[in-house]
Amino acid sequence: MKDFTCITVTTPVAGVAAIQLSRPKVLNALNLQTMVEIVEALESIEQNNDIRCVVLYGNEKAFAAGADIGEMGDAGTIEMLKRDQFSRWEKIRTFKKPIIAAVSGFALGGGCELAMHCDMIIASETAQFGQPEINIGVMPGAGGTQRLTRAVGKALAMEICLTGRMINAQQALRAGLVNKVVPVQSFIQEAIALAQEIASKPPIAVQLIKESVLKSFSSTLEGGLEFERKNFYMLFATEDQKEGMHAFIEKRTPTWKGQ
Ligand code: DAK
């Protein structure tokens, strides 16, 4: 993996790529370069069959405190449109392999939205989530009003977006925004362990499960059930389905080929 300036990409264990946001001086504020690099890293990971799951994290103090305000303060509508930020976020949304956000400290604005683009969130005890855009005269622009509402419900989403207040890790857990709250010392390891577990599963089934769960956000129940059913039948064309079922019957551990 090439060297980046705003992120660091490693392979902490086989099958797992870890992307660390590395602009600690500005609490990992998401400037344009960071977004470009995240997309570039994900595109490369998507092509790499050895990587099956991704962990995205910042540091203890901040996952990301939002889009880089310094880059936006004087921008006009046309300039914002030309930056084509939405297509970058879109590429994260359509990434095929599971992504787990490991969040400690601030996940605010675009940072909270980035965490919500991920498929699961492991939070440290110090994690704080919020959409404080209201305090700087704007509003969430990368899915905050939509994904947060789906995750935590209308009442809490309204409160978070309209007041700019943050919620802590335990509140986020109760609200269903995060999967688990763990000590600060272990939030990255916990996320990597979860990613490693997923990386050990049959990859085509993993991909279709991710697509099917995400489909539930954009389809009717009927449409989603049909999508799920077709994906289910499709898996019977894979060698991994034969291997998985035969291994069960033969009482042995399956070996997945991703085919
Ligand atoms: N941008 C730039 N710099 C930031 C920053 C940010 N979002 N957040 C923090 N920093 C910088 C601070 O300016 C400070 O820099 P120095 O003064 O040391 O040079 C350094 O990080 C440390 O911050 P503080 O000194 O403020 O640290 P504190 O612990 O006192 O406070 C804080 C932490 C997180 C409460 C505070 O920094 C804060 O309120 N930060 C701003 C949070 C915020 O408003 N976030 C939302 C930004 S708007 C889009 C999609 C999405 C978006 C935009 C477009 N498209 C698809 C087009 C998203 C927009 C946003 O996220």
Describe the overall structure:
The protein is an alpha/beta fold and 259 residues long. 46% of the residues lie in helices and 17% in strands. It has twelve helices and ten strands. The strands form two sheets. Strands 1-2-3-5-7-10 form a six-stranded mixed β-sheet, sandwiched between helices. α1 packs parallel to α4 (85-93), α6 crosses α7 (154-163) and α10 packs antiparallel against α11 (221-234). The protein is globular and about 65 Å long. The protein starts with 6 loop residues before the first strand and ends in a 10-residue tail after the last helix. The structure holds 4-(N,N-dimethylamino)cinnamoyl-COA. 4-(N,N-dimethylamino)cinnamoyl-COA binds at residues 26-27, 29, 65-70, 80, 85-86, 89, 106, 108-110, 113, 132-133, 136, 141-142.
Task: Explain the layout of strands and helices.
Layout: E1 7-13, E2 16-21, H1 32-47, E3 53-57, E4 62-64, H2 69-72, H3 77-82, H4 85-93, E5 99-103, E6 106-108, H5 110-117, E7 120-124, E8 128-130, H6 144-152, H7 154-163, E9 166-168, H8 169-175, E10 180-182, H9 187-199, H10 203-215, H11 221-234, H12 239-249
Parallel strand pairs: 2-3, 3-5, 4-6, 5-7, 6-8, 7-10
Antiparallel strand pairs: 1-2, 8-9
Helix pairs in contact: 1-4, 6-7, 10-11
